[in-house]
Amino acid sequence: MKKTKDPDSILLGRRIRTLRTIKGLTQQKLGQLADVDYKFISEIERGNMNPSFKVLVKIAHTLDIDLPEILRFEQEISDPKELDKRIKLILKDLSADKLQNVLTLLRVLFPVR
């Protein structure tokens, strides 16, 4: 549990914040349920502190997710160029049918008005 501000810690913090928000939990509630001080949760989410493995396990359990899910940072990329690159990489080898499925999904998620 050392004080940091490296890019990986920032990504981890954003990921935990995203997962916590999806579950509708405040930092206080996550801390209470995971038996971790909510101030430490705040420090983790800001990328200021690295949690121990034990704390990560507690957070994952509380969020009702598998531990590896916490480390899936794709959803936390904020650079538009990097996002564009990764999307193109995924789409480039899809068949026409799968591309149609992607388009349908996008239309459901983001209806054009």
Mean pLDDT: 88
Continuous helix count: 7
Radius of gyration: 17 Å
Q: What helical percentage do the residues reach?
A: 55-70%
Strand content is under 5%
In N-to-C order, the SSE pattern is HHHHHHH
Major β-sheet profile: none
Strand tally = 0
Shape verdict? elongated
Regions with pLDDT < 50 over 5+ consecutive residues?
none
Q: Summed up, what is this model?
A:
This protein is mainly α and 113 residues long. The protein is built from 7 helices and no strands. Helix 2 packs across helix 3 and helix 2 crosses helix 4.
What does this structure look like?
The chain is mainly α and 113 residues long. The protein is 64% helix and 0% strand. It contains seven helices and no strands. It has helices spanning 7-22, 27-34, 38-45, 53-62, 67-70, 80-91, 96-109. Helix 2 crosses helix 3 and helix 2 crosses helix 4 (53-62).
Helix-strand blueprint:
Blueprint (H helix, E strand, L loop, with lengths): L6 H16 L4 H8 L3 H8 L7 H10 L4 H4 L9 H12 L4 H14 L4
Helix pairs in contact: 2-3, 2-4
Keywords:
113 residues; mainly alpha; 64% helix
